[in-house]
């Protein structure tokens, strides 16, 4: 048992799992798991053809790291293909979207900070111009 509440080991089996129709989150670090953390750390497994459509995190920085699969990654109006070992740093409030264009599950890590802030953590803009038609 951990005698120090300021640190924590987390195995894959101990992650907090969130299932969605298009993806699965495995949480390793969040304020619900680690007292006073400034980090959110999640492994995302996104099914083929699915996406985390255009969105932003108004007050959080983010790093994405691809473990496996193929992502069509958008940052504002720029598109890149990301595969195993590729990463992306995003400052706060930058619109981006991750689309699984491969035949396999897209498996990636996301680290966001700060974990706690006023207002929404994520804002979906996929139905707004110019994002709504950008991938057409």
Automatic annotation (TrEMBL):
InterPro entries: Cupin_2, GPI/OXD, RmlC-like_jellyroll, RmlC_Cupin_sf. The keyword Metal-binding applies. This is Cupin 2 conserved barrel domain protein. The lineage of its organism: Bacteria, Pseudomonadati, Verrucomicrobiota, Pedosphaerae, Pedosphaerales. The keyword Metal-binding applies. Keywords: Metal-binding. Pfam families: Cupin_2. It comes from Pedosphaera parvula (strain Ellin514). PANTHER family: CUPIN TYPE-2 DOMAIN-CONTAINING PROTEIN (PTHR35848:SF6), OXALATE-BINDING PROTEIN (PTHR35848). Residues 44-111 form the Cupin type-2 domain. GO terms for molecular function: metal ion binding.
